[in-house]
Amino acid sequence: MGITVLQKRIIVKSICTTVFVLTVVGVAVCVWLGQREAGSVDSGNYSASEKQGSQNNVTPIQHADASDGRQQAQNYKNYAQEWLDPIVILTALLVVGVIVTAYIYWRQLKEMQKTVALVGGQEKTMRDQLSAMQGQLSAMQEQSKFIGQQVELVVISEIAYLGLAELLPPVFADNVLIIVGKIVNGGRTPAWGIIRRLRVGVIEKDSAIKEPNWTDVEETDAGILLASQEFTITFPEKAINAELWRAIANASYKIVVDGELRYFDSLGGLNFYSFGATYKVNPWRALQRYQQHRREKIN
């Protein structure tokens, strides 16, 4: 079982405290030894003066032998004093303290390097996780888009769907042009609140057909149309004379019709259906120019 981070911190603090205490004790011991050495020197000087007086009473031979012995003893004493010198001891303690401190710092450096490596590995892992999450997000967005398309297809397959089923040949009676058509609901649900706007125009065969301006066309209510059912629409009567009717029959003029239906489906959507057609003669037939469906969600 490895050592935890808390245990490592406790060990480091203990080592630092021990080094500090040893340093303080060493300094105190060195001061004490210094004071003791000073007292020993004073005592030595006093003894030396007494010995000097007694040496006046010895013979030269005795004096020489004593001097050699004292010199040898003094050398050993000086050698010991050099090693017991407070400065030497203090220096030794400081060296030990520096070595211990350097070792502690070295260990801390190793631990920091391990921590940095661990953090680097965690950063890479987090980046990989972020990339994976981004990929999942993209997949979820694609899936959401696909689901939305599927829902839209289901909605389209279930809602009411109006369309132009037929335009009957035009009728001219009492100087009035009459156009009748049929609208069918090709969806699976009813169309509610149908509002229609229709227009009829007669123009020269080579003239361009203008797009209808529905704001100028009167709206009429057509009610409800059930699924797979149809109803008849009658365009507004167009007043023309017999000469213009003959021109239409000779293809010098042409009849154009446009229509727009607005209705609600059973799923709460507002739908728009618009169409346009041009009549041809010999035989009479309606050629569709355009047909558009549009649905707006209001729920």
What does this structure look like?
By secondary structure, the protein is α+β, with helices and mostly antiparallel strands. It has two domains: 5-120; 162-297, Immunoglobulin-like (Sandwich), CATH 2.60.40.10. The protein has four helices and eleven strands; from the N terminus they run H-H-H-E-E-E-E-E-E-E-E-H-E-E-E. The chain has helices spanning 5-55, 60-83, 86-158, 242-249, and strands spanning 162-167, 171-173, 176-178, 180-185, 191-204, 220-225, 230-234, 238-239, 253-264, 269-280, 285-297. The strands form three sheets. Strands 6-5-9-10-11 form a five-stranded antiparallel beta sheet. Strand 9 and strand 10 form a beta hairpin. The radius of gyration is 58 Å and the shape is rod-shaped. The two termini are 64 Å apart.
Number of strands: 11
Per CATH, the superfamily of the largest domain is Immunoglobulins
Sheet having the most strands: 5 strands, antiparallel
Structural class by sheet pairing and helices: alpha+beta
Strand order of the largest sheet: 6-5-9-10-11
Q: Which class of the largest domain in CATH terms?
A: Mainly Beta
* DSSP helix fraction: 40-55%
End-to-end separation in angstroms reads 64 Å
CATH arch. level architecture of the largest domain: Sandwich
Integer average pLDDT? 80
Q: Write down the Rg.
A: 58 Å
Shape: rod-shaped
Number of domains: 2
